[in-house]
Task: structure prediction
Amino acid sequence: MDRRHALKVIGATIVGAALPSRFALGADGGVDEASKTISIGGFTPVTGPVPFYAILTHAADSYFRFINENGGIRGWKIKYTTLDDGYDPARSVAVTRRLVEDDKIFALVASVGTATNVAVAPYAKEIGLTMLGPIGGASMFFSEPNIFPLLPDYGWSAAANAEFALKDLRLEKVAILWENDELGRSAKRGFDLYMNEQKVTPAESVSFEVKTTDFTPHLRRVANAGAEAAILFGSNANLASALKAADRQGIKLTWFAPFFTADPSTYKLAGDLLNGVYFSSWLLPVTSDEPDVKAYRDAVTKYYPSDPVGVFGLNGWSNAALFGKVFETLIDSGKPITRENLVASGNALANASVGGARKVSFRPGDHRGTRQEAILQAKEGSFVMVRDFKPYPSVAFDAAPG
Result:
C-alpha cells in the first residue's frame, strides 16, 4: 500500500465491487453519469492534537455506507474519500487541493474543524467547490455562497438557554461562565444581547481558560452575586469540573450548557452531578426514536463498533446527511449535476429534516441553516427533550455576524 492510499484511512466508501477506473469528470469533476456515482471528500484529524475527532468522520462515513447499501440517493452511489490533515490548517488546504486534483471530488463534505475549514474557504471559493456541512463554528460560513453549515453560532445557543431560564423556568438571576476564546466570546455576545433586550442585568459574567480544572473562585463570584442559574459555555470537561466545584462548596444552581456537552462522555466525567443540567441543542437527543437518529445508532454500531454512540457521532452523521438532502434535491430538480446547480439546490432547502436536525433552511445570502433549538435535560444517564424545537431569540439570531 503506497503512502497516498494509506492516508485514506477513514473514507473511501466502496461502491459495489469496484469503481470505474476512469471517471467522466467534466468541468466540475466527480460525476460519473454512466455508473451513477458521485465522488466527494473531506479532511479529518487522524493524527495531531485531536485524533478523537475522527468519531465525527466515522459517523459521516457510516452515513454514506448506509445510503449506498440502501440503494443510494435516487439510485446514485457515493464515493466518500477522506484524508488526514492533522488538524493543521495549512495541511487542510494542501489535502483539499489533493482531493480536488487527484480524487476529482464534486464537493467537500463534513470536513472537521473550525480553523481548518476557515483556512480552506478561500481556495474552495476560488475554484467553485461547494463546502457542505463543515463541522465547525465560524460566522463567515453563514454568508459565503458556496458554504452550507449546520452548526449554529454559539451566541444563538446561549440566548436560547437564557430564554428558557427566564421565560420557562421563571428564574431571575442568571450568570454566564464563558471560555476565553471565540466559542465563549460568541456565547457571551448572544447572552448579553438577549439579557439586554429583556432588560435583565446578568447576575455575573465570568471568563475561564480552556484548561481550567478548578472552578472554585469562579463559582464563588457566581454565588456571591446571588445567581439562581449558570450558563456554562466550554468543554464537557469544563462543565464536569464546574459541577464538582459547586457540589464541594454546596452551591445550588440550575445549570445550562451547549449541545456538544449533552453526551454520554460528560456523564463519565461528572457522574450523577450531571442530572438536571439543561442543554440547548440543534440536534435531537441521541436516544430519540426518530428514524434518522435510530439509523445513526444502528449504522455506527455496525461500521465502527468501537466508537461511542453520542452527540459527536450524531453531529458527524447529520453534517453528512446535509449533502444527501441537497444532492437529492438536485436530482429531483432534473437539472444537470454541476456545482452551480448543487448550490442552487442548497439554497432551495426549506424546513428540511437533516439527520438529527429539523427545519433546516438556506437562502441566497443567508446560510444560517439551523434556525432553532430544543432544550434537553440530563436524566439518569440519558438526555431527554423537555422543550421542543423553537426559533432562536431574534435579537441574537438577527445580529449574527455575516
Notes: The first strand starts at residue 31 and ends at 32. The chain has a mean pLDDT of 91. DSSP finds 13 helices and 15 strands in the chain. The chain has two domains: 3-152+288-370, 154-281+373-397.
